[in-house]
Amino acid sequence: MKMTVCQITNFLVAEFPQINGEFEIVNLSDDGVTVSLLVKDRHLRPGGTISGPSMFALADVSFYIAVLANIGPKATAVTTNCNIDFMRKPSKSDLTAKARILKLGKSLIVGDVLLYSKGTPNPVARASLTYSIQK
Questions:
Q1: Is pLDDT at 101 greater than 80 in this prediction?
Q2: Could you state, in order of their start, the residue ranges of all structural domains in the chain?
C-alpha cells in the first residue's frame, strides 16, 4: 500500500470535497478496501430503497480509494468503464462496498466491487470497473 487510511482521507478532503461526509473508509488491506455509504434521505428513491445513482457512487468511490491506496495520491486516475448489476433490493441502512483490484497495469487498473446492505450476507449489487491513470 502506498497510502494509509488517514492519508487517503486527507487527500479526498483536499482534492474531492464534494464527497466529504458521504463515505467512510472502514478497512484498508492488501486484499482491497471496505467503504461505507452513510445513507441519508437524499440517497433514497420511491419504493423505500437506495437509489441506483447512490449505489453507483459507492462502487466508483470505493474503487477510486483502492486505486489511490495502490498508486499513491494521483488525482488524475479516472473511471474509464463501469458496469453494475443490481441483484437485490437494498435496505434503507448504510451500504458497504468491498473493492478489490484484479489487475494493476501501467495505464489501466481493473477490479470489482461488491455492495452489501448492513447486516446482510448476500451482495445487493456487483460492479466491474476499469480506471485509467492519466499522465
A1: yes
A2: 5-133
Tell me: domain 5-133, CATH 3.30.2350.10, correct?
A: no
Whole-number pLDDT of residue 125: 98
Dist CA 51 CA 88 (whole Å)? 12
Which ranges of the chain does DSSP label H, i.e. alpha helix? 5-15, 52-71
- Contact by Cβ (8 Å): 25, 10: no
Task: Tell me what percent of the residues of the chain surpass a pLDDT of 70.
Answer: 100
Q: How many CB atoms lie within 10 A of CB 32?
A: 24
The pLDDT of residue 100 is above 80: yes
Amino acid at 80: T
